[in-house]
Write a structure and sequence with these properties.
Length: about 450
């Protein structure tokens, strides 16, 4: 149990209606007593108050009133951190919250590090590591689907499966180790078969979890899509249509977009980061040259592309060049301006699969079909509720890959009749790697790297 009492502003810094300052630790109530002067009959000093009650009063600092506030008293262990906690709701705006925080710090609290409240929740056993990560996912989620997945993980769905897997592996390990202690008895052939079967089931289960990694990443950080094509084909108009607002400048002058423009849209529940780029052609000046260089860079980093063609113009040499050039990319061809007389003849692209969607970015025709096509390209098949229950992140993926490799080595060692010490060694590596996911085996460095990604006050 850490001794220090920590405090931080829990709301974003800026002007708003309300702000929340939070303090947690052994001295939380005592420190709050020093700063809080209750107003009205039913309000009390924090240390005299019953748990889970709210009190109206003033925060006093250096003899002066800082703000009128509501103060919530939350006594251990039924709190976020499992420690005594006080939450002050003061007026929004940077200064009131800052001064309330100052008052706490001057009376013995220490400024919390990013994620330190959640870290304490983890250290005090209220959340495991996968659940703590889900808190960050929840805060950062950009679509309802991502939120649903974060909520499932916070509720412990992933942890439950990981713990089951770990328990299975530990039992197997215990079995193997028992035989190391009694070297005279070798593992009987049928017992050996049972162990192998268990281990193989473990590998199968890990593979199942690993398959969710791609979807998990998409939901967490979104997927990047570059909008590319010749100048004036309607790339910026397409970006605006997909976002449902006028984000990028649109004009009939070719070469309007110079810099790349990046915005996230919710496409059928998936966060997609669209990047509008400068039209690709021989650059006319230095700025355009830089813009086109950035277009190519964006293209290289994108996970898929929307290649825009102008239906009112014949296929140009440049189009053909790009059609061939981007053949290795996942892509959707977007034939824009279908409201105008069609000049773009049917075309073929050798050795490349693609989808073609007709749209009109002036009136929005075809945009819904394009969204379906994007969803289908990114996430083939239905998005099922069960899938959201386990969406591993890249850290889990890394740990599972190590666990899988070690389990496979265990299987090979057991089959190859290697000494049981060697079998146990790899099996222990696997158990530890699985344990990392929920934090059963976690180093300080690992915790630092996870919690440093949190915001202050969480
Ligand atoms: N008729 C018609 N005009 C369109 C359509 N979509 C875009 N335009 C027009 O085409 C012109 C170019 O559109 P932009 O969106 O600026 O094209 P862009 O590809 O971003 O152009 P650059 O940034 O110069 O590369 C504008 O005048 C748009 O109004 C469409 O579906 N139909
Ligand atoms: Mg543009």
């Amino acid at each position: 149990m850490p001794d220090e009492t920590i405090a931080a502003i829990a709301t974003p810094l800026g002007e708003g209606g309300l702000a929340v300052v939070r303090i947690s630790g052994r001295q939380a109530l005592v420190i709050a007593d020093q700063c809080f002067s209750p107003l009205g009959k039913s309000s009390q000093k924090p240390s005299a108050a019953v748990s889970h009650t709210i009190h109206y009063g003033r925060i006093i600092r250096a003899g002066k009133t800082v703000d009128e506030v509501l103060l919530a008293v939350l006594r251990a262990p039924r709190t976020y951190t499992c420690e005594d906690t006080v939450e002050i709701t003061c007026h929004g705006g940077i200064l009131p919250a800052k001064l309330v925080l100052e008052a706490f710090l001057e009376n013995g609290a220490r400024l919390a590090e990013p994620g330190e409240f959640t870290r304490r929740a983890f250290l005090n056993g209220r959340l495991d590591l996968a659940q703590a990560e889900a808190v960050a996912d929840l805060i950062h989620s950009r679509t309802e689907l991502a939120l649903a997945a974060a909520n499932e993980q916070l509720a412990g769905k992933l942890s439950q499966r990981i713990n089951e897997l770990r328990n299975e592996m530990m039992q197997t390990l215990a079995h193997v180790e028992a035989h190391i202690d009694f070297p005279d008895e070798d593992i009987a052939p049928d017992a050996r078969e049972q162990l192998l079967e268990r281990l193989e089931n473990g590998v199968k289960f890990m593979d199942e979890l690993l398959r969710s990694a791609k979807e998990g990443q998409i939901l967490r950080r979104g997927i990047r899509a570059a909008i590319v094509g010749r100048p004036n084909t309607g790339k910026s108009s397409l970006l605006n249509q997909l976002l449902g607002r006028d984000r990028a400048i649109v004009s009939p002058i070719p070469g309007t977009t110079r810099d790349t423009i990046e915005e996230t849209a919710n496409i059928r529940g998936l966060p997609v980061v669209f990047i509008d780029t400068a039209g690709l052609r021989e650059a006319r000046d230095e700025i355009e040259q830089e813009g086109i260089r950035r277009s190519h860079e964006t293209l290289a980093r994108a996970e898929f592309i929307l290649q825009v063609l102008d239906a009112s113009e014949p296929l140009m040499e440049a189009d053909e060049k790009f059609l061939a050039e981007f053949a290795s990319k996942k892509r959707i061809l977007v034939r824009n301006k279908v409201d105008l007389p069609a000049k773009l003849a049917e075309f073929r692209i050798s050795n490349s699969e693609f989808r073609l969607v007709d749209v009109c970015c002036l009136n929005g025709q075809g945009i819904e079909a394009l969204k379906d096509a994007i969803k289908e390209l990114v996430w083939s098949g239905e998005i099922k509720a069960e899938m959201l229950q386990v969406m591993i992140n890249s850290r889990h993926q890394d740990a599972l890959n190590r666990a899988r490799a070690a389990t496979q080595r265990t299987i090979d060692a057991l089959r190859g009749d290697l000494t049981l010490e060697l079998v146990a060694l790899d099996l222990r590596i696997a158990v530890n790697a699985i344990g990392e996911i929920v934090g059963k085996t976690a180093t300080e460095d690992l915790l630092d790297s996870i919690f440093s990604q949190f915001c202050i006050g969480k």
